[in-house]
Amino acid sequence: MSCIFMNNSMKNNRSVTFIFGAFAFLVCCFLMNVSLGSVNIPVSEIIHGFFTGEWGKASYEQIILYYRLPKAILAILAGIGLSISGLQMQTFFRNPLAGPYVLGISSGAGLGVAILILASSAFGLGLGIAISPWATVISGTLGAALVLVIVSLVAWRIKDSMTLLIVGLMFGSAVSAIISVLSYFSGAEALKLFTVWSMGSLGGLVWNQILVLGLVIIVGMVPMVISIKSYNAMLLGESYAKSMGINPTQLRWLMILSTGLLAGSVTAFCGPIAFIGIAVPHVARMIWKTADHRILFPASALMGGILLLICDAIGQLPGSAQTLPINAVTSLIGAPIVISLVLRKNFSKEF
Amino acid sequence: MKKKAVIGRNLSLGYQKGDLKKEVLEKLNFELFSGQLTCLLGPNGVGKSTLVKAILGEIQPWKGSIQLSGKDVHEYSNSDLAKTLSVVLTEPVSPGNMTVGQLVALGRIPHTGWSGKLSMQDKEVVKKALADTKISYLEHERLSEISDGQRQKAMIARALAQNGQIMILDEPTAHLDLINRYEIMHLLREICQKQEKAILVVTHDLEIAMETADQFWLLTCGLPLISGIPEELVLTGEINQLLPGDKFHFDPEKGRIEKKIGSRKWKIEGDPISSFWVEKAMDKSGVPPVSEVIYVEKSPFSLQYKGILYSSLSDFLSFLLA
To answer: A290, B97: Cβ pair inside 8 Å?
Structure first.
């Protein structure tokens, strides 16, 4: 171990220490998130319950195991998925304002859910309100996959990555327009249901679903991990990357696959969650002061988990029975981060 | 006999857009030698970048072939090509969060495993590239905090760390000040001589190229590529191909481009160097021909015209133009 550390420079050491620090902080946030809520459960009680299986009150066990624990784990998974796809998009497109949704993934998932909820109401298919969480997830996944396939077919024909970015954004707008049309013709009840979905939610998922999402996130990270060197080369732009033996076309497909799985699945399970994907990679760059993706990858994943846990804890309005939609909280926290980033004088230089 | 690193034979290059075929260059023949600094000169839009792209294997030639170290460029795999050939391009790079050391380390990408982790040997190469470009002291500086000249040297160091036999630089001295232009070109000359690399530099700096290059490639509209030793191209006058029309010419006496001065309008006598600059200033100011002789004294500088003494050139000019 000491040998490895001696080989690394001081700076590398500092980055690794920061990663461990961030991990410890993630654990703290996790415990805090589980402990806070309409009923405050002391952290000592939670740790005791985890390890012994004995809970102070029977209601604690119910609340923790079937409500707060899945929600906290979902927050971490969603934070990881969105931040990692945001990081990939920002480096690939060399655009600091790119995020996981620039290729129209969230609009696609939205379209899937909209067709499920709104169209069934508009055409009187009678599915109405009795929609199971799995149905939402499946329709969201199908919608995201559909848009991604169309964008990929276009990507096949175009060489310039800036064109791909514009095409992705345009597809997003077009799909949103279809959703607007569907909303216009659907009933009040269905409209409310869809609006609530589009505000994002971390609650209401069962353990099986968490497990599926966890697996998809792990699979989705594989393309990023195997092309981590290519992302470092992409920092100098496509031409330089090419001159160093990197194949940008192959990287583009890996990126579409990875972000499709990560952002697509998170959006299908939780609804669109704003700002995390754009803001977190910047926060990681600011804290670690590096452009090296071998550091930024774990750093963004950890920061994503931490930020979403904190947002969720705030959204629960500790001490009250009310909760705020997660999308509202992330935007309220994410927007000031992005604004302060853009206002920094040498923001574009440091990207 | 020098080793030929790049050989182009009967090359025709161009772009195709739909049915429209646009030929940019045709019937090019060239050889790039190891251990020599070659400068590619030519006016804007003549196809220098197209030629560079073809050597990088980015565009397929319509006719003819390009061979790198005896093998056709399109037979190379991406990673093998990256190990043979490295580049410094004109496009700006701006990952400001990166240090110079990290930038140079990126040059090792074709040589490392999937994670890009540097071995001890890779680190040695990076250190050597920094030392060869004389920027070891910048290793821990961030790219956003160094000057343009330093950044250009860092880009050259990155290309060096890639450790190919061939280096191609597209206008590496554009936007740089005079000193940096000289430094970078001399640096490149030193590198190619010491390390037996074949270096091709696309440049517009004729005077600096004249001083540092072993070979010139001249590319002009509608003519085949002219290659040769710079001095020889001056002696044969072929260098003037770069300067179409008859307004400017390359003055072999002074080694620089000059506006052609027709018949001498003024009689100037005295120290030859001083006379030369006085004549130049008068020409630029559009002084009409005068009949009397102008006498020039070198130190202290003075001018005598029609019996009046002028201690500075500007006084004299304002008198003549008044």
So the answer is: yes
Residues B89 and B23 in one domain: yes
- Residue B2 to chain A, least CA–CA distance (Å): 26
If pLDDT is split at 50, 70 and 90, which confidence band does A3 have?
very low
Of B202, B236, B256, which residue sits at a domain end? B256
Q: For residue B192, is pLDDT > 80?
A: yes
Q: pLDDT (tens digit, 9 = 90+) per residue, B261-275?
A: 666 678 888 888 888
Tens of pLDDT, residues A283-328: 898 888 888 899 999 999 999 999 999 999 988 877 777 888 898 8
Angstrom distance (rounded) from CA A324 to CA B114: 43
DSSP codes, A265-291: HHHHHH----SHHHHHHHHHHHHH---
Tell me, yes or no, whether B70 and B100 share the same domain.
yes
Backbone φ and ψ of B291, nearest 5°: -85, -40
> Domain limits at B290?
267-321
CB-based contact A229 B96, cutoff 8 Å: no
Option in B82, B94, B114 nearest A226 (CB): B114
Domains in chain A (CATH in brackets) are: 10-350 (1.10.3470.10)
Q: How many domains does chain B have?
A: 2
- Closest chain A residue to B107, measured at CA: A244
Domain containing residue B83: CATH number: 3.40.50.300
Residue B154 and residue B302 in one domain: no
Question: What single-letter amino acid sits at B310?
Answer: Y
**A333 vs A324: CA distance, rounded Å:** 13
Judgement on whether residues B308 and B240 belong to the same structural domain of the protein = no
Question: What residue of B is the nearest CA neighbor of A242?
Answer: B78
Q: What are phi and psi of A326, to 5 degrees?
A: -60, -35
- The string of pLDDT tens digits covering residues A146-167 is 888 888 788 777 777 788 888 8
Q: Do B95 and A228 touch (CB under 8 A)?
A: no
Give the residue on A whose Cα is nearest the Cα of B102. Answer: A292
Residues B94, A291: C-beta atoms closer than 8 Å: no
Average pLDDT score over residue span A134-138: 81
